[in-house]
Structures are given as structure tokens and as C-alpha cells.
Amino acid sequence: MEHANQLMRNKAKAVRLIGIANELLAMARELEMGQAVGSDFAALEAVGQAASLTKPSKTVAGQDHPIWVELARQSYEDRRRRTKIFQSDDLFGEPAWDILLDLFIAAKERRRVSVTSACIGSAVPSTTALRWIAILERQGLLLREADPGDARRVYVKLSARGYQAMLEYFASSSRSVVLLDAPLSEAANGR
User: Fold this and answer.
1) Which string of DSSP letters, residue by residue, matches 118-131?
2) Please, are residues 45 and 57 in contact by the beta-carbon 8 Å criterion?
3) H helix and E strand count, the chain
4) Are 12 and 55 in contact (CB under 8 A)?
5) Within a 10 A sphere around the Cβ of 64, how many other Cβ atoms?
6) What pLDDT sits at residue 75?
7) Alpha-carbon gap, residue 22 to 66, rounded angstroms
8) Buried (b) or exposed (e) across 26-41, using 16+ Cβ within 10 A?
9) CA spacing 20 to 30 A to 80: which of 10, 96, 103, 134?
10) Mean pLDDT of all residues belonging to the chain
11) What are the structural domains of the chain?
12) CA distances from 176 to 7, 26, 186 (A)
């Protein structure tokens, strides 16, 4: 029995470490691209606190979970499936959310998304998608960055604030799924 409990604790620690690693990768990518991370000091402090692995952190690093990118993919695919099944592009439309999902998945995969690709992924006309990209940029949820190798291409990505908001969304909307990974004693204490 003790061996099973230790395995569960180790699994929970591994999940938290994966979350920390994902956050560090996102921070490293922003630093690599020359962007300032919105909460450098808070994020670094959170990583230090989470590294102790005594209890889950309430910060962004502690909120990250590897299942969330899968939930984002599923959500994006579900949205495409609705349109296909109901055979109408007019019934379901939320291009800003589609763009945010696409950019969140891309951030987790360390993949760049061009403005053109984001427009296609939003499943609306390009003019509508460009308007939503501009709105998301004004809201501070995404950033545009020029391609240094091709002046005609511009990439978009989640800002630190946008990435944090997506983490918060998936943390709150998938709380019960994530609790399944936690040891029973931690899950009971988290309620």
C-alpha cells in the first residue's frame, strides 16, 4: 500500500514538474525572441516555490498541466465538427476563441503561427479574422512579430498575459480532470 501511495506522489510531482517545464519553455521562447516576459520576477519566484514540490502553487507555473493542450486540441476539433455536422458556417462562430485556442496549442508545441495561418484557423473570412487579431492585440492577449527572414510574413503568438489567461481558463474549466491525476489525499484537500 505504501508503495502505491509513493507511486501516486511521484506521479503528482512529475505532473507538476512538467507544468513548470512548460512555463520555463514559454519564458525561454519569449526571452529568445527578445520579448519581455510580463511577470519575470513573479514567474521565477513561482518556479522556485514549485520546485520544492511540497504543495501545488497557485501561480501560473503551478497551474500548467500537460493535459490542457489536449483539451485545447479537442475543443478546437469539436468546434470544427459542429460546423461539419450541422452543415452551416453561420450557426457557430467565435473567431477570437478559435485564434486563442490555435495560438495556445502552437505555444505548447513551440510552433510559430503566421497571421495567414491564424486567419485560416479562425474559420471566418480573412477580413473578419484580421479584425479579431487586432482586437486581441489591443487587449494585450497576443503579439505580432515580423519574420526576420521574410519581410512579407508576420507571426502572431500569445502574449504572456494571453498565455496566463489560457492557463487560468483550462485550470478552472478542467479542475475535475486534473484532480484525477492528484493523489486521493491531495484531491480531497483541494475541494
Assistant:
1) HHHHTTS-HHHHHH
2) no
3) 10, 3
4) no
5) 28
6) 80
7) 8
8) bbeebeeeeeebbbee
9) 134
10) 74
11) 2-65+178-189 (no CATH), 67-163 (1.10.10.10)
12) 21, 25, 13
| pLDDT recorded at residue 42 | 43
- What is residue 9's three-state secondary structure? helix
How is residue 121 written as a grid cell? 484557423
Q: Beta strands 113-114 and 150-158: pairing type?
A: antiparallel
C-alpha cell at 112: 510559430
- Residue appearing with cell numbers 507511486: 7
Looking only at Cα atoms, what is the longest distance across the chain?
61
Amino acid letter for position 10: N
Interhelix angle for 95-108 vs 160-173, to 10°? 100
Is the Cβ–Cβ distance between 173 and 134 less than 8 Å?
no
Concatenated DSSP letters for 30-95? HHHTTPPPTTHHHHHHHHHHHHT-SS--SSHHHH--THHHHHHHHHHHHHHHHHHHHT-SSS---H
d(CA 56, CA 61): 9
Alpha-carbon distances, residue 110 vs 19, 69, 106, 129, 151 (angstroms): 15, 12, 6, 22, 22
- The pLDDT confidence band at residue 129, using thresholds 50, 70 and 90, is very high
Query: Which residues on adjacent β-strands are paired with residue 144?
Result: 156
Place of cell 516555490: 49
> What is d(CA 113, CA 105) in angstroms, rounded to the nearest whole number?
10
